């Protein structure tokens, strides 16, 4: 378990002098007097926070309020009896009860593991999984936790392939030790990158790997991560499923969560509870707050106890994801080639366009020459669409055909982020150029659908 | 034996009554830069630009949520929060696409604090209450998981605190002001639907200034007067919203031997006296009761353990009691529990007409959402027979000193309710519990929840601390509010109101509406004042439902009179007509019809001339002094079809013609 780091921001200047003069530490009860302004207060000295201005003393009053008091030459402090300790959080150790379905839980950071930090005054990732359990007593009557591990505490945007490899290693250990499933608590912003990565790295698995996060921090009564975590745990423990999935609120209601396929899901809103949407397919299923699962009519991999996980976690980090848009400078691709990248996923417009035939006097805006250069130098160039929904196509328009002729590969209905992650994984595990192209176009984990469904648009 | 009836009067001095107020007033403050006309008119919320606009129409957004108890800054789950967790159920929120946003729905972090609201609250704190302004303001989250806030907390900031000069004077007495805070209003409680609590988000987030007084009031009357004074002082600033629901008070009441009890959300100032008095009586009565049951009856922990919910469906299988029949049919049941040694005490009055049984009912309501309880001291009744009562006694194993309670309804609810009452009795054994009580319309209060401890506040991390800079301080310093005396002078000199009328108007909650009518809608000042402080009051006394007459209606009506479209004397009739038809006919229509029925000047002149002619003799004798008598005759003839002032001026002309 990682240890908690506390950053100590000290009071400075006049505030520091005043506090030192009475030998007070944060938490100490003080009488604060300003004779000129004819007032006095009692309260506890709080640690300074990042946003607090200089010459301000932060005090917690007996009515519970925090206020900032200006340090002037008229201010007097007096140390008085009493102290509070901050930063105490109740922990609840996971129970192991015989007869209950068994799962393991891995913590990686994110809002779901966040709480208030009194030093910075901001939300930080500091909670160990045990501390979150405190808010979820109902879990223990139906599920037994074999292992609860905190692998690291990172925001999801700071998680990359080395962390994916670490998560995959631990998931493998847990699944191979015989638990019914594994829950991965994860930050939400880039959770869909990690869910894709785990989908490819883990390959065949015996039971579900359910990822969950929170859009509201765990300090509040409206903590949405509670339902997500409970639902993910139930999916891991009981669902007839053997895939990497993301389990998050189905709607703004605390009534059910969707079970999204890890390669077909995307965070589509900055802040709403139901930010995660399955793209181009319906969610695999929906689990309500009592744990009932309703499966959708879509193929899924079923639980299979006999499967032993044999992960392929190699990953080629020299890859990139770029967006092509009106006025975008194709030289970015030259830069990537020169930087030694092995492959680039382009998020094109519509069916997978890049600017191709600008007016004669603005020729330098066309991406075709540089795509050609890239593929000739051995890079894999994949085309996806910034519409997110729908399938790319290499033939409909002339520009598409030319992009293809330049060597770019239209990646069917793969999401840009999924394609980016898959490319790193494919390049990490296969050398042959032809094979890379073939596997990029082969459906491995539900990332490419055979046909486009009518019922799955917004 | 102990006296069953509660006294209706009390000696406040003898029992050491202390009252403090927390006065909550909504602030009118459009979010800086907002282009939304509704926000400009009604003001904005504290942490988003949405209009502070209360709606009557149905909501178009419905969201279901569950709240959980969470630990506070010091790592302890607050007792009040735990209590709410016990009642855990789905909460239904209603919202509007056009006047609420993701902030109220707890789906988005807050916007920066509404600077206009902050400025106004600070100006009030400094100039009205002489408080010291907080140099760096910290917005905090106050944990509230009763459902009235979608987030599970209320955002609040202390903005000013007391110094030696922070007081107001009421009846020559100094009443200390402790602090002001700026906070967001809670969502509106819309009652229950099935087991779900329902709240509406139009009110959530409206800026409120909370003014806390010292417990310097020692009589119920003084508590009312202080509340009225604070209300008046706030109205004089012109910074506050007006109308029903824009003001709410929490009353902190204690007696020397009792404890601090908070009565939450009193909206009507005229009931404050009653609430304070009844709460003092209740504390007194509770102390007497507890002493009696503990010392005389030796009621103890062991007795409490005997309180267990028992299903009594069998007993009532063939009952004639309608309520029970209905409940059993709907798969409900009757849950019973024995209350050891409480025979005869369930009808013991804690407040006038409010019994121990009533208190248990209130506990059952808030803990389990149960409909209420029946108890042994009131049965047989409600169609429940003597025979059924004795079967209940038998089934519960009751001896003659014991009482019992019955809960008719859902079985789970019944169990939760019985356990809630059991927990409460445990608290009673330890002495008078500190609790929050809800005002009831009859002036008594009912149990609401335990009084929250101090551990429920922690920083709102989505809002950085706010440092009062020089620019803001200077802006605040420049503000000057009228004193009541200054405003009274203005009413008398500028608006030409009599001293009495000016005084009445000044103290009236609709004083600022009165000013708006005069200044912005050119309504005659005297007409507006008389209508508000006299006409409406006397109509209400006569039993007319004047609650239907809202500000818009009054504005239209008074404008119409001021323009001379309808006669001044028709106001009462219009209001009566409108109220009787409960808005079925719009006011505009009533006014239209009245206008159509008005005599033309020619018709009026004709009638006046006729009457002048008929009374030639009298006019000859009395000259202009016959005016009064003639007016009476003419007015009875035109019967509201002409304005008195018009009649008078035509008559004057005709009279002088006739005399000359």
Structural overview:
- Chain A has three domains: 13-83, SH3 type barrels; 102-295, Rossmann fold (3-Layer(aba) Sandwich), CATH 3.40.50; 319-440, Rossmann fold (3-Layer(aba) Sandwich), CATH 3.40.50.
- In chain A, the strands form five sheets. An eight-stranded mixed beta sheet of chain A has the order 9-6-10-11-12-13-16-17, with helices on both faces.
- In chain A, helix 3 packs across helix 4 (191-202), helix 4 (191-202) runs parallel beside helix 9 (416-429) and helix 6 (331-338) packs parallel to helix 7 (368-376).
- Helix content of chain A is 22%, strand content 23%.
- By secondary structure, chain A is α/β, with parallel strands linked by helices.
- In chain A, strand 3 (56-61) and strand 4 (66-70) form a beta hairpin.
- The longest helix of chain A is centred in the middle third of the chain and has 16 residues, at 161-176.
- Chain B has 660 residues and is an alpha+beta fold.
- Chain B has four domains: 12-292 and 455-459, no CATH class; 297-432, GAD-like domain (Gyrase A, domain 2, 2-Layer Sandwich); 512-595, no CATH class; 601-659, Arc Repressor Mutant, subunit A.
- In chain B, the strands form five sheets. In chain B, strands 1, 4, 6, 7, 8, 9, 12, 13, 14, 21, 22 and 23 form a twelve-stranded mixed beta sheet that branches. A four-stranded mixed beta sheet of chain B has the order 2-3-11-10, with no helix packed on it. Chain B has a four-stranded antiparallel beta sheet with strand order 15-16-20-19, sandwiched between helices.
- In chain B, helix 14 (499-507) packs across helix 16, helix 15 crosses helix 16 (525-541) and helix 20 (601-614) crosses helix 23 (644-659).
- Residues 72-78 of chain B have low confidence and may be disordered.
- At the A-B interface, strand 3 and strand 4 of A face strand 2, strand 5, strand 6, strand 7 and strand 23 of B.
């Amino acid at each position: 378990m990682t240890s908690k780091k506390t950053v100590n921001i000290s009071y400075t200047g006049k505030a520091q002098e005043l506090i030192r003069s009475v030998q007070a530490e944060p938490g100490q009860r003080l009488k604060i007097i300003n004779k000129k302004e004819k007032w006095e207060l009692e309260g506890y000295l709080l640690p300074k926070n990042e946003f607090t201005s200089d010459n301000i003393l932060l005090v917690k009053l007996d009515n519970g309020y925090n206020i900032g008091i200006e340090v002037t030459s008229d201010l007097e402090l007096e140390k008085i009896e009493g102290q509070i300790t901050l930063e105490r959080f109740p922990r609840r150790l996971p129970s192991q009860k015989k007869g209950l379905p068994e799962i393991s839980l891995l913590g990686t950071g994110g809002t779901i593991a966040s709480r208030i930090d009194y030093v910075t005054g901001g939300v930080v990732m500091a909670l160990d999984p045990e501390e979150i359990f405190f808010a979820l007593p109902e879990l223990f009557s139906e599920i037994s936790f074999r292992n609860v591990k905190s692998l690291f505490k990172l925001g999801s945007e700071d998680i990359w392939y080395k962390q994916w490899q670490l998560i995959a290693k631990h998931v493998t250990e847990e699944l191979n030790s015989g638990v019914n499933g594994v829950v991965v608590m994860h930050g939400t912003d880039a959770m869909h990158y990690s869910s894709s990565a785990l989908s490819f790295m883990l390959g065949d698995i015996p039971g579900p790997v359910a990822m969950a996060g929170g859009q509201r921090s765990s300090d509040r009564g409206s903590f949405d991560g509670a339902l997500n975590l409970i639902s993910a745990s139930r999916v891991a423990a009981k669902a007839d499923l053997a895939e990497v999935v993301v389990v998050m609120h189905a709607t703004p209601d605390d009534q059910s969560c969707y079970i999204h396929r890890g390669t077909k899901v995307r965070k589509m809103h900055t802040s709403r509870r139901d930010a995660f949407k399955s793209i181009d397919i319906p969610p695999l299923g929906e689990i309500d707050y009592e744990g009932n699962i309703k499966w959708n009519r879509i193929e899924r991999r079923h639980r299979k106890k006999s499967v032993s996980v044999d992960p392929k976690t190699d990953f080629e980090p020299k890859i990139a994801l770029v967006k092509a848009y009106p006025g975008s400078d194709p030289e970015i691709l030259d830069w990537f080639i020169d930087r030694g990248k092995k492959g680039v996923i382009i998020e094109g417009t519509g069916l997978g366009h890049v600017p191709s035939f600008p007016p004669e006097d603005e020729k330098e805006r066309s991406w075709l020459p540089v795509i050609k250069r890239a593929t000739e130098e051995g890079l894999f160039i994949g085309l996806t669409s910034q519409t997110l929904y729908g399938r790319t196509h290499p033939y409909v328009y002339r520009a598409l055909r030319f992009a293809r002729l330049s060597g770019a590969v239209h990646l069917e209905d793969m999401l840009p982020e999924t394609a980016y992650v898959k490319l790193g994984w494919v390049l990490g595990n296969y050398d042959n150029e032809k094979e890379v192209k073939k596997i990029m176009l082969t459906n491995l984990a539900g990332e490419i659908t055979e046909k486009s469904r009518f019922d799955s648009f917004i | 034996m102990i006296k069953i009836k509660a006294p209706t009067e009390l000696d406040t001095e003898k029992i050491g009554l202390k009252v403090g107020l927390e006065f909550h007033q909504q602030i009118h403050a459009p979010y800086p830069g907002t282009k939304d006309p509704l926000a400009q008119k009604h003001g904005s919320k504290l942490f988003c630009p949405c209009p502070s606009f209360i709606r009557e129409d149905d909501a178009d957004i419905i969201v279901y949520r569950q709240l959980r108890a969470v630990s506070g800054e010091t790592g302890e789950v607050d007792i009040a929060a735990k209590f709410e967790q016990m009642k855990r159920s789905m909460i239904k929120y209603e919202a509007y696409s056009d006047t609420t946003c993701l902030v109220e729905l707890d789906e988005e972090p807050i916007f920066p604090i509404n600077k206009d609201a902050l400025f106004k609250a600070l100006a009030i704190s400094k100039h009205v209450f002489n408080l010291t302004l907080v140099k760096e303001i910290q917005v905090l989250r106050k944990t509230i998981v009763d459902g009235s806030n979608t987030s599970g907390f209320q955002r609040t900031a202390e903005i000013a605190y007391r110094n030696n000069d922070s007081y107001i004077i009421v009846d020559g007495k100094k009443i200390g002001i402790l602090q002001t805070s700026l906070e967001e209003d809670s969502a509106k409680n819309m009652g229950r639907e099935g087991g779900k609590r329902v709240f509406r988000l139009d009110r959530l987030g409206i800026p409120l200034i909370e003014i806390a007084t010292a417990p310097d009031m020692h009589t119920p009357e003084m508590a009312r007067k202080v509340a009225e004074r604070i209300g008046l002082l706030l109205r004089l600033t012109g910074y506050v919203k007006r109308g029903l629901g824009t003001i709410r008070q929490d009353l902190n009441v204690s007696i020397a031997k009792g404890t601090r009890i908070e009565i939450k959300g009193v909206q009507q100032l005229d009931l404050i006296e009653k609430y304070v008095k009844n709460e003092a009586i209740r504390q007194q009565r509770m102390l007497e009761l507890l002493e009696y049951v503990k010392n005389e009856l030796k009621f103890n922990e062991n007795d409490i353990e005997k309180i267990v919910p028992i299903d009594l469906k069998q007993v009532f299988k063939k009952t004639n009691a309608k309520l029970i029949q209905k409940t059993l049919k709907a798969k409900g049941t009757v849950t019973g529990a024995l209350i050891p040694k409480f025979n005869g005490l369930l009808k013991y009055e804690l407040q006038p007409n409010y019994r121990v049984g009533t208190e248990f009912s209130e506990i059952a309501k808030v803990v389990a959402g149960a409909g209420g309880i029946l108890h042994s001291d009131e049965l047989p009744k409600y169609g429940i027979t003597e025979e059924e009562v004795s079967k209940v006694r038998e089934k519960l194993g009751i001896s003659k000193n014991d009482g019992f309670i019955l809960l008719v309804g859902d079985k789970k609810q019944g169990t939760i309710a019985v356990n809630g009452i059991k927990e409460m009795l445990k608290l009673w054994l330890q002495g008078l519990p500190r609790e929050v009580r809800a005002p009831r319309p009859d002036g008594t209060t009912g149990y609401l929840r335990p009084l929250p401890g101090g551990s429920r506040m922690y920083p709102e991390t989505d809002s950085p601390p706010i440092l009062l800079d020089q620019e803001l301080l200077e802006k605040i310093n420049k503000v000057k509010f009228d004193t009541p005396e200054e405003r009274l002078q203005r009413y008398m000199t500028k608006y030409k109101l009599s001293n009495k009328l000016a005084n009445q108007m000044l103290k009236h909650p609709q004083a600022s509406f009165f000013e708006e009518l005069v200044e912005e809608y050119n309504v005659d000042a005297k007409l507006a004042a008389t209508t508000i402080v006299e006409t409406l009051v006397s109509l209400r006394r006569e039993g007319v439902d004047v609650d239907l007459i809202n500000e818009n209606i009054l504005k239209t009506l008074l404008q119409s009179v001021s323009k001379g479209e309808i006669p001044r004397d028709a106001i009462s009739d219009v209001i009566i007509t409108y109220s009787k038809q409960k808005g079925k006919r719009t006011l505009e229509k009533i006014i239209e019809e009245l206008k159509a029925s008005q005599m033309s000047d020619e018709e009026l002149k004709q009638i006046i001339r006729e009457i002048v002619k008929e009374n030639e003799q009298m006019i000859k004798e009395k000259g202009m002094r016959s005016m009064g008598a003639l007016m009476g005759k003419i007015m009875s003839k035109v019967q509201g079809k002409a304005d008195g002032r018009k009649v008078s001026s035509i008559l004057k002309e005709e009279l002088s013609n006739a005399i000359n």
